[in-house]
UniProtKB/TrEMBL annotation:
Record-linked PANTHER family: SI:CH211-196P9.1-RELATED, SI:DKEY-15H8.17
Lineage: Eukaryota, Metazoa, Chordata, Craniata, Vertebrata
Biased composition (Low complexity): 98-112
Record protein name field: Uncharacterized protein
Region (Disordered): 98-117
Length: 530
């Protein structure tokens, strides 16, 4: 009966999310008192059964939901007779036994009787997956019952239980399979698990943060066992390394309605807008649409060998070198909203990472960063801790400049390396950031519009994927940790970090490590700490 109650509550909340708790309870009591024993009985509920409890429109919505909940999807297939061959040969149909097979001469009239007209569509396991609510922590079940949000600790425990249950069906569920499960959870208990704004509205698709947590948990479990899986494409050929690194559209084809000529015309249209409106044109809806349509040719030019100079690409695609352009390109490339992923991950585990290092400082550099904790923004503080733990210098990823510096000033006063750097402008960088810039190939290529460290970190990280750049050795561990823990790109094979010189032999190894061992070790320790 508890399962029936949970299912019934989920259906009501999905259909009428704003319903009061008293009305919800009255509905369930009324239905149970009427003899409801399972969700399949919902098809027998009529308007008269609950007419006094809901307004007319809400009543119709709920009855429609009850109807859909008990529907079985079927296909009505008419089996047409085949032309009668010259030689009469018995034909065995899948639904007939050999003894009951009619001769070909009367097959046309009897085949529809032998074979049932309806065939149920077999659903995939994520669609039929039952959330193990009964084994969830008490705090989670209590929050669900009250329509409240569970504590972060209880939610993490829920994700652990969920991941363990899903791995009984498949050791390494695909992202799409995880999405299906997360969607079902959000539909049942939006108040408890959906991503919500301060005003209670659902943020985006509602399941992004839960999906990131779930995928990270599954990847961590797989990493700590001997299990390794390299997915193959449908035709049996192994995917390339770009797919392994989460690029779902590394080199897409032209849109069906476009040709090389029409796409080039759209690029020229972007050029016209830029020369007329400058960088502010990136806010136009037309620019967003044109950048999406021309994404295929952007990738073609970026992926060309030898790789084109950044200066040349900026001349061709000026709007790509904006904060909004980098975010959008990264999302088209990986299906990940990078800024949102970073925000959610930092909110979820930023303080946990800080607490972990506070309890177990791994070296003197970490202790030095901890001494500055009260002065630093949390997100900046976490990245500083990670770099200190991996013995990577801050200059390997982040540079600082005066708050009033222009791009020309920065290029003139700082020795900008060829690899990407995030440049923070402010009187007290890390405490009060007034602006940020990104340098690449020794020049400033982008200036941010949001004066926050996290928005700059998202943009500089997008550079590595957008332009096929390996992580520089000076910050490779920190960047791979960001990739795996915060962004959720968790390949089992390969690394974007460059090959380091071996401390033992003094030579560059011929083969890259599958996963950075120091990153994997920290991920495991954090998982145990949580």
């Amino acid at each position: 009966m508890n399962t029936v109650l949970e299912d019934l509550r989920g259906i009501i909340l999905r259909t009428l999310p704003t319903i009061s708790k008293d009305t919800q309870q009255a509905l369930m009591d009324n239905l149970l008192n009427s003899g409801l024993e399972s969700t399949q009985d919902l098809k027998y509920v009529t308007q008269e059964d609950i007419t006094d409890l809901l307004p007319a429109i809400q009543l119709r919505k709920l009855l429609e939901a009850f109807k859909k909940e008990t529907e079985v999807v079927t296909l009505d297939l008419e089996i047409l007779p085949s032309p009668i061959p010259a030689v009469s040969t018995p034909l065995v149909l899948p639904c007939s036994s050999p003894s009951s097979v009619p001769s070909v001469s009367n097959q046309g009239s009897s085949s529809s009787e032998d074979c049932g007209p309806s065939f149920q569509i077999k659903k995939t396991w994520p669609e039929t997956f039952q959330i193990p609510w009964t084994t969830m922590p008490v705090d989670v079940r209590s929050a669900m019952a009250d329509g409240k949000r569970p504590s972060p600790a209880a939610r993490r425990q829920m994700v652990r239980v969920l991941a363990d249950e899903m791995r009984k069906y498949e050791l390494n569920p695909k992202r799409s399979q995880c999405v299906t499960v997360c969607q079902n959870i959000i539909r049942q208990y939006p108040q408890s698990f959906a991503d919500l704004r301060d005003n209670g509205q659902v943020l985006g698709n509602g399941y992004t943060s839960l999906l990131i947590q779930l995928k990270n948990r599954i990847e961590n479990l797989n990493r700590t066992t001997s299990f390794r899986q390299h997915r193959s494409s449908g035709d049996g050929l192994k995917r390339g390394p770009t797919d392994t690194y989460g690029c779902t559209r590394f080199q897409p084809d032209l849109p069906p309605e476009e040709t090389d000529e029409t796409v080039e015309q759209k690029r020229q249209r972007l050029d016209e807008i830029y020369h007329r409106e400058g960088v502010n044109g990136v806010e136009r809806v037309e620019v967003k649409q044109l950048m999406e349509t021309t994404f295929c040719i952007q990738r073609r030019q970026i992926n060309a060998l030898p790789a084109p100079a950044i200066t040349d690409l900026r001349g061709q695609w000026p709007y790509l070198f904006t904060q909004k352009g980098l975010y959008a390109h990264f999302e088209l490339l990986t299906d990940i909203n990078i800024l949102r992923a970073l925000e959610l991950s930092m909110e979820e585990c930023g303080r946990i990472i800080a607490e972990f290092f506070s309890n177990k400082p791994s070296n003197a550099d970490v202790r030095a960063v901890l001494s500055l904790r009260s002065d630093l923004e949390l997100f900046f503080f976490v990245i500083q801790l990670l770099m200190a733990h991996f013995s990577e210098t801050q200059e390997g990823l982040i540079l600082f400049a005066n708050a009033s510096s222009t791009a020309a000033d920065v290029e003139r006063t700082l020795a900008l390396p060829a690899t990407p750097r995030l440049i923070l402008l402010g009187e007290k960088p890390g405490i009060c950031i007034q602006q940020w810039m990104i340098s690449f190939e020794g020049q400033i290529i982008c200036a941010g519009i949001q004066p926050s460290f996290l928005s700059g970190l998202a943009a500089v990280f997008a550079i590595f994927y957008t332009f096929n750049v390996e992580y520089q050795a000076e910050a490779a561990c920190t960047l791979e940790f960001i990739q795996r823990r915060f962004i959720g790109i968790n390949p089992e094979k390969g690394t974007k970090g460059g090959r380091d010189v071996s401390k033992r032999t003094g030579k560059v190894p011929q083969k890259k490590k599958t996963v950075n061992t120091r990153v994997a070790s920290l991920l495991k320790k954090l998982m145990d700490f949580e």
